[in-house]
Amino acid sequence: MKIDYLYKDGEQKFLKILNKSKKSNILQDVVNLLYKMFEKYSWVGIYIVKDNNLILGPWKGRQATDHNKIPIGKGICGFAAKTGKTELINNVNTDKRYLACFISTKSEIVVPIKRNDIVIGEIDIDSDKKDGFNQKDSVFLESLAANRTFIKLIDDYEA
Ligand code: SME
Question: What atom of ligand 1 comes closest to residue 59's alpha carbon?
Fold first, then answer.
């Protein structure tokens, strides 16, 4: 399967999930979809901003993380929540901000989800591959994060 096609297919499947009539478990279905479709996505999670912290919501991966609650400003996740900008880390071991979750993780991408320019959550993905993420991943994930129905689901999620 051609890689560009995979992103297009991913977006279409994402939109299909959002349009499901049964509105429960949609965010879990979204993380499951990303984890299943992209082999290099080794762990996929959604964090929700609550007070001054990021609280872990739905996730999919081989292992659970101990980082269920991350203060805004801490780690790559907390940094992205503070700046509102995507963080693409090619090699987590050379980034001092990195909060280690899994020994196998080599690279990470964090994409903030915003409502009216305010960060309300984020998509956090770890890869066991070094340089696991590129511009196509950030464009793809940012387009998911900008979807209005998705933003509403994040807003309504009880963290
Ligand atoms: N590595 C993240 C913490 C979350 S785990 O990857 C699930 C960070 O540095 O903020």
Answer: 7
Q: Which residue stretches of 63-134 are H helix?
A: 75-83
- Quickly tell me which residue has 């965010």 as its tokens: 27
Are 34 and 10 within 8 A, CB to CB? yes
Residue 99 alpha carbon to ligand 1 centre in Å: 5
What is the pTM assigned to this prediction?
0.96
- Is the CB of 75 inside a 6 Å radius of any atom of ligand 1? yes
Report the first-to-last Cα separation within the chain, whole angstroms. 37
Q: Is the CB of 77 under 6 A from ligand 1?
A: yes
pLDDT, tens digit (0-9, with 9 covering 90-100), for 47-104: 999 999 999 999 999 999 999 999 999 999 999 999 999 999 999 999 999 999 999 9
**For the CA of 67, the nearest atom of ligand 1:** 4
Rounded-to-integer distance, Cα 100 and Cα 84, Å: 21
Residues 6, 149: Cα–Cα separation, whole Å: 22
**What Rg value do the Cα atoms of the chain yield, rounded?**
14
Residue whose structure tokens are 């939109």: 15
CATH topology of domain 3-156: Beta-Lactamase (3.30.450)
